[in-house]
Amino acid sequence: MALKFGLFSLALGAMLLGSTAQAADLKAEHDASSVAWNSNNGRDSRRAPTPPANQNGRYELREVKKWVEGRYDQVWVAQSCSDQSRRYIKKCEPGHYERRWVPGHYEKVEQWVWVPAPRHGGYRRA
């Protein structure tokens, strides 16, 4: 009887542990997908931000140029072999990493931009 109870407990524990691990995987996948969609302090980045109080205008999603600073990148350079002179000797240089400079540049990104409402009135008839 004790053996049956022990096997039952072991099977139940394995089943619960497996479902807990699966739930943790699903939660991690959900968290990763929410990071991709949310960037405005937890708000959905596809929705317009709240307009400032007492302001006339609206937010529009526009494509703007954003400056990206220059940086060094580490690039893998594959092994290269070359033939040497008349003796058919191959000289091979093993694969290695190289630091390469990527110059600064502009990138087009979508960004919410505040557009003030056009002012009406102010024109006088003569």
UniProtKB/TrEMBL annotation:
Residues 1-23 form the signal peptide. Residues 31-58 are annotated as: Disordered. Keywords: Signal. This is Lipoprotein.
